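Look at a sample.

——
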Amino acid sequence: MTSRGAGTAFSRRNYRLSNESEKPKVTGIVNSKLLNDYLHRIFPSADGIQPAAAYRKPLTFQNLQEHLDKLLAEDSGAEDSRDQILEGRLGPSTVVLDHISGFEGLLLVDDDLLGVIGHSNFGSIRATTCVYKGKWIYEVLISSQGLMQIGWCTLNCRFNQEEGVGDTPDSYAYDGNRVRKWNVTTTNYGKSWAAGDIVSCLIDLDEGTIAFCLNGVSLGTAFDNITRGAGMAYFPAISLSFKESVAFNFGSRPLRYPVEGYRPLQDPPSMDLVEAHKLLGYLKNVIHIGIDVLEGKLVEKDTSMWQLQGEPTVLITLAHIFNHFAPLMCKVYLVEDVLMNFLLSILEQGGAVEAHPLIQQLLDLMWLLMEDYEVHECLKQLLMSLLRAYRFSPIIPDLGLQIHYLRLTIAVLKHEKSRKYLLNNVLFDLLRSVVFFYIKSPLRVEEAGLQELIPTTWWPNRFTKEGKESKEVKEESAEERLRRRAYDRGCQRLKKRIEVVEELQVQILKLLLNNKDRGGGEASRYIFLNKFRKFLQENASNRGNLTVLCPPEYMVCFLHRLISTLRCYWDGHKAKAPAALNSEEAYVPPQLFYNGKVDYFDLQRLGGLLSHLKKTLKDDLALKANILIDPAELQAVTMDDLDEDEESATSTAQRPVAALAIGGALARPSWLSSPTLGRANRFLSTAAVSLMNPRRSLGTLEKMKARTLSVEQRTEDDIEGSHGNEGLLLGRPPEEPEQSITENSLLEILDGIVMMYNLSVHQQLGKMVGVSDDVNEYALALKDTEEKISRCPKRRRDIYEELVKSQKVFSEKLNHLSRRLAWINVTIYSKEKMQDIYWLLRVCIRTIEHGDRTGSLFAFMPEFYLSVAMNSYSALKNYFSPVHSMEELPGYEETLTRLAAILAKHFADSRIVGTDIRDSLMQALASYVCYPHSLRAVERIPEEQRISMMRNLLAPYEQRPWAQTNWILVRLWRGCGFGYRYTRLPHLLKTKPEDANLPSLQKPCPSTLLQRHMADLLCSDCDMAPSFLNSVLNQLNWAFSEFIGMIQELLNQVLNRVTAERNLFDRVVNLRLPGLESVDHYPILVAVTGILVRLLMDTDFQGAKRATAVLLADPCFQLCSIQYLLGHAEPSALAATPPSADKRHFSLHTYTDYISQEELAKVERMLGHLSEESKQAAASMLVSPCLVCTQPRNQQSCGEGRGRVPFLWWSGGTRHASSDGDLGGFSLGSRGAGFAQAAWLGHTLHSPASCVPSALLNATCTHFSMPGSWNHWELATQGGGVAALLHSGHVGVRAGWENSPGQRLVWPNLGCEVRLGVPR
């Protein structure tokens, strides 16, 4: 930020109390001698030698100003002459980024022209000053760790969206994201950087070298022999990709890591520095030296307990000092180098912040002796310097730097007047003050000292999760146990140090939430409330613009500190008001959602838009909440919404016209923060059209803030209420108890916390789980490598050495990740953080329950309450394990049951109209029924709610996602089916055993209770069953007849084709082709077997009898398919063809882990049952008359010769038919146990077409098979007396039967001949 007021003349306060001629020479407080001694002690000469009293010029307040001016001017001449030396540098003395002509692409630049955010593919920008001789340095504060190239370039370098600094000749760059250096070509260099690091860029134009440092540690010389000479001058420059951000320090602030011999591009204000240090020394003298009026002498005083105590002599002395000191404290360099270091030195003495009241006294002096604008600027710069120092300080083992800066921040904020000014004008308006509550995670654990804190690393062995429900217990060796315990001790040491920082952060928030400091205006808490609400609005309204949002990692830490502070104040109020609720029972009352006291911006409500709800539910508001909606307000809201839509459309239509000239500045919304922790209000573009336009014009934006402005202007009475005014609790519905909850202001903060979680916290919690996943992956890789080393032959030394190298790499990576994971577990996934999220879940559940009781007014609740309830439960279940288990939380079972009741009731709630939130509820319920513990919670909700839930699930799919509904219903049954209790596909485990270590499918957990509810509903409601079936079939685009046909095909054709050996399916399975691992007999045959067992075994006698009769009557059914299920292999069709050595016959007996003995026994009984019924059906055919000749059936035809009728006879058959043609004596007869024999009885077969009924010949191994009508089989003459069996389908016919006269039937589709006749 540029300093203001330093070079402008202002009228100053006059503190000279006794300079009029009529006043006596003695002050009236101390005598002249004592005053003279005091002033000479406070303002000593420059050489520090005090002359004897007789030779000293007497000092009084009349000549003190002259004396002080003389002291301050003693070194100014030398400083002035030294400041004129600028050899080796060209350009303005104040170095900033060149926002006029020195950039390429789209960039957002801070208003101090030192911070920049990339807003295009690869934007570039350089500084305004270049160097051509000497040694120079500048620093870059890394705000994001993405793709950037930082370094130097010449004026001749031309950049574009693809090439930046380091990609052209005479430009040199360091890239810590890819850990490389760039100068047209690229090579490895340096270390990886992280957000919060500081890169120092050094150039030595005398030696021709360029080097870089990271956090003060040299990375070595990057480039040498750089181009020098006439016309060669180098500018600081950077290229950065979209969303990446940095801040430059060319010397406007003290360098964090100065390097000896190198000068910053911008000279420090040396003369001001000398003067400021002198004045600070005089101030320290005032603090150290006191006046004992009674004794008439000067005394040394304890500086830590110094107080002004209203002494006029001391006050006037300080006024003279501050008369010079105050203007200097408006400059950022002096504030950071002089004032902040002085205040930090006070706290270095140790002890609590309260033990150092000197800082409070100094702040009192500043407010007393400085102009208001000077105090404001000084405090602003001080907080900015503290925030910058905290954010960009390296992490050391004891976190001492972070603790140091936080302690000073607390000391400043303890001063009431300063705190209120900073809250009103700085903390949320100019700074990203949320940074104070962030603890950054170290990317390089060795620099953070984690190797000393956690010397022993450990990582858990990969455990098997059945849907994250259970862990596979493994034996732990003694060595592993020792390592784990040592690792845990290191984690505890780290946790204790981080807890110190967290406690300091909570102390800051406690100061900001203080509601007792009403002196001099509004209490701090109510200022914070309005600023906090605005902060939420900025992040909620700009979720698509990532450069504007508060980073989610900051939000996570801010949320936890705010929860701790809120609960502290909440329970403190409970101690004072026993009738109020404690924090464990906290919730947000429903009236906050509709009484208009809290602004929810444009966030969606459960019932739709707020304007719509006010119009449709105005009668309910009047009746239940005693809130009247003014018709004029309704009209205004409606027109306002219309204007907003029109303006948005107009803005969109006019967007191509909104062109900016090169270097033009776009008026930015006031909420945009920059990477330098200040405001960014310049938008630079080299494109013809700007890619960033505000949603509305600036004037329109101000007009739309009218409602927000009213919230910002709220008073304490508007929030807390008084004299019959309920404040935020206006409009209490009759269903809401009259019991006091807590202070109203705390309710609004609680509401904001829930909104914060919804905005970005949940997303960040899921993101950080990736480190744990990386640990598991590397642990598996290391284990696999160690196993390969143990199996490696000794003669293959080359392979062994490569494996050892891999082992070393994996071990080093695991050591690094395990220490980093320890940090993340402490700061994000600790038990205390888990309890915070659990508390937030319970708050949302209670809030939803209270809102639900209000009936139609429930529609006013913002959607994010339901979202946070679902997401926080998901986070507890998925993100915090295995470090901490949700089952350990108090009231865990009750909480799950209450959440289950909410999901079961509201997924079909007509009061909820939003499609997205309804889908989320369905998905949450679908996830809920996947896990045993949560499914049991669904079963524990009241029976009435369970039945209502099942009724809604069975209702026709109207305006709700049918996929999730089907998923829920299927999950309620999954695991009850035959052989379907597996968590991993068993055939895949056999073909790919390495998949055993991959995440499993969710373990089935059926619910017989909910199954019974569904059965009762479908059986008792005559309209629901057909409606449900119609809905299902409509979604599948089937008719009922098609559905039955599909079932028949599944039971017969699919069963026959999958069980037939040497067919296409069997060959594909045995080939084991890549990508077809999932093609296997198991999933198909198990499903068919389960249906058959259910129809034939697990039903009543009559049902089984009917099913058996239908099954055997179906011409496609064959008994050998059932035998195939149990592993009864079919003998080879040709004796000459030996069985394959690697042929594997399918059998349910091989899947004992997935199919129970009871299920196998049922299949055995089913096979026996079908075999017996088949024989009985065959026997009944022997006594049944022929339908043609009316004679009893035998193995001879109805006649011989021309015109005779053949007949079809097979084991278990029930039909035969005739044809008018001359068939000779052809008959099909029975041969043995279920074999069909084709016997040739005549000489000719010349009928053009003979219709034979479809047949299912129950052969032991092969068969004729074809479903359908009676005309599918034809016997025809194929010339020369050759008979052919013609059919369009797939039929398997047993070969090996010869006809007596030598004629044969040819089956062309099988590629082999089929002989019909008598056996040899």
Observations:
- The chain has a mean pLDDT of 76.
- DSSP finds 39 helices and 27 strands in the chain.
